[in-house]
Amino acid sequence: MRKKKMVSVLLALSLMLGVCACGSQSGDSQESAPKGEEQKTESGDSQTSDENSSDSSEPAGGTDGQVTLRIAVNKHPSDVSDNADFAKYKLMLRKAEEDLGYKIEWQPAIDQEKVATMLTGDLPDVFWGVLSDSQITDNTGLFLPLEDKIEDYAPNVYALYEESVPDWKEFLTYPDGHIYSMMGGTLVNPLNAISGTMWINQKWLEQLNLDIPETMEELENVLIAFRDNDCDGDGDASNEIPFDWCHKHWASRYVELAHSFGLPLGGGYYDIVDGKIVSIVDSDQYRRFLEEYHRLTAEGLVNIEGATQTDEQYNSNISGGKVGVFIGWAPYTYISDEELKSQYVPMPLVSAEGTTPRLQANLNGASRNCYVITTACQNVEAAMKLWDYFSQDEAGSFATAYGEEGLVWEYVDGEPTNRIYTAEEATEMGYGEIASNAGTSTFAATVGMVNAGPLMLKSRTDPSGTNGAVRWSSVKNYEPYYMEQTMSQSIIPADANEEFSFTTDGLSEYIDTFACDSILNGITDEGWNAYVSGLSQYGYEYYLEFQQKHLDNAF
Questions:
Q1: Is residue 77 within a helix (H) or strand (E), and if so which, with residue range?
Q2: Cβ-contact 44, 138 below 8 angstroms
Q3: What are the tens digits of pLDDT across the range 158-199?
């Protein structure tokens, strides 16, 4: 067993900063997708109970005595496996069924609407990597308390928590005093601290004898050159996209562009200054940001379709070699062609004139809600034994998250290490049907549970040339601009969350719609004043007060 005792100040700090829902991680470097919006679901019985389930070790659900489980499982958007055969390329999922003698019906939860339907209808036995804090607090009667079962039914999990995760009970315990889940994700994971970063086509820069821009003014000059020259060499100087973004893509939303203007959007519609929540989206600086990106859009420097294009269109633009600068996770997320992929290099976080960039970072990838057992489960011990199987040792956890050892990752000098792999290698190891995706986020998301693996204490080592190293080459440029204080990750009580959801219903859509429309069409004084006035109608003042309570743990 390769577990290592890592009780340290760093782990303690990262745990306190831990995320509330299982963050989606894709790509060979723990690529993260955003958490789904908090769903308003009917509240379950406030009294949790084991009455509808059994702790019996006897098989349940199968007419032949075989243990059967129905598991609603997170499916990353990059996962190309068939929903009806979700485990086809995931070796550890298939191996667990074989070794334990289980029959598992995998129910991919591809969106939060489907999850909400499950919560109000036909409950699975387990929710794996799909539930948020509020979905649990709003429906505690649907889930089983696990605090008195982990040590007995999941001894590997319990040993890992006890040896390496300070204050794990406090982190997992809900306001009603119960633990409803077991952790997943990576405890110390700097690559996932932020989402979108900027990448630029270095080949285009070299053709035009230009340097990588470091300010908004320099960026604009580069974009003008990209617009006015046939940079892709196809004979058409009008089909290049100088700068691309996509509001519908989790790592390329408009909020990622705001960091250059000192606006730490992404974590919420607020800033934190000296321990106080400060409004952002009604500020003069926010208006300046929107007006600047409208100007760049109107001049043909920023993709005019950024607010409306689909994920597929955005990916096609980048993989087609038409984009000079894009904001997103990393080139390997969108490009399979090795030559084109190598053309893109990281940019620094460019700064607008008179502004210091700022952003909220999340230094902990651990999820407290990764594996949740429902009251529909007739064999609790069997369900917990499955998670314990995936968590039996470090190698098992990494294999569950990233596929079998020797392709996406391997051990080097005893350390889990990211590796460079080819389509030929993938084919030789039995993944010929998806080998064309080798080296991309799609392949890793298809062969493993990169968005919801068992708890791993730290991320893989990333040698030069690997995807993790590529991602880090960009992330490290953003570290100097991380906010000193970020939002508390304490669990919000159900009644407070219900009031918040009701009072601020429609607020995020209102803010996002105005932002995207402003980037596309511009802002008038009349339109700005109407928008600011409308914020109060959607509960923005309440929103800010609520965030202050959350920051102060004052619920």
A1: none
A2: yes
A3: 999 999 998 899 999 999 999 999 999 888 788 888 999 999
Tokens of 14: 């990262």
| Helix, strand or coil, per DSSP, at residue 483 | coil
255 residue type, one letter: V
Geometric angle at alpha carbon 67, from 65 and 72, rounded to 5°? 145
Check if the beta carbon of residue 332 is closer than 8 Å to that of residue 441: yes
Task: Region of 210 please: left (phi>0), alpha (psi -120 to 50) or beta.
Answer: beta
Q: What is the pTM of this model?
A: 0.73
Give the per-residue SS3 of 489-515. Answer: CCCCCHHHHHHHHHHCCCHHHHHHHHH
User: Is residue 377 left, alpha or beta, with left meaning phi > 0 and alpha meaning psi from -120 to 50?
Assistant: beta
User: What letter would DSSP give residue 300?
Assistant: T
Nearest in space to 402 (alpha carbons), one of 20, 84, 19, 93? 93
Which residues 6+ apart lie within 8 Å of 447 measured at CB? 89, 90, 91, 402, 403, 404, 407, 408, 431, 434
Decide if 165 contacts 297 (C-beta within 8 A): no
Burial (0-12, 13-18, 19+ Cβ within 10 Å), 100: middle
437 is written with which tokens? 């995706």
User: Directed axis angle between helix 525-537 and helix 540-552, to 10°?
Assistant: 60
**Cβ-contact 28, 416 below 8 angstroms:** no
Q: What is the DSSP letter of 461?
A: B
Alpha carbon dihedral 399, 24, 111, 128, in 10-degree steps, equals 50
Q: How far apart are CA 74 and CA 24, in angstroms?
A: 8
Within 8 A by CB and 6+ apart from 548, the residues are 276, 277, 554
Name the residue type at position 33: A
The gap between the terminal CA atoms of the chain, to the nearest Å, is 42
For residue 64, the tally of other CB atoms under 10 A from its CB is 7
Query: Which tens digits make up the pLDDT trace of 70-125?
Result: 999 999 888 999 999 999 999 999 999 999 999 999 999 878 888 888 998 889 99
CA–CA dist 484, 93 (Å, integer):
40
Report the DSSP pairing between strands 103-109 and 68-74: parallel
Task: Give the helix ranges, DSSP H, for 430-493.
Answer: 441-447, 467-475
Pairwise CA distance, residues 274 & 269, whole Å: 17
Q: Residue 369 and residue 48: Cα distance in Å, rounded?
A: 17
Contacts of 479 (CB under 8 A, 6+ apart): 193, 361
Sheet holding 241-244: strands in order across?
241-244, 323-328, 197-201, 344-346
